[in-house]
Amino acid sequence: MLTLTNFLTVAGAATITTALVAFVKSIWKTAPDPWVTWIFAEGTVFVGGVLQGPLTWKEVLLLGVSGLVVAATALGSQTGIQKVLGKA
Known about the structure:
By secondary structure, the chain is mainly alpha-helical.
């Protein structure tokens, strides 16, 4: 179960991102995977950062970099799922 404690872990944020991308892809079939994943990863990380309290510019920069790591992780998990299902 995801809680505020593990919301901002890479695994937690990547799971949320992958679920959101799957939901969007079910509605918008031609959504570009890398861009949609990156947008949702950054959004998920920033929401998690805001939930922890007021942000400084340093923390915003760190959240931006963390969003890139989450996007890379989510894209990797999506590729792995596609390979297992034989779609890639």
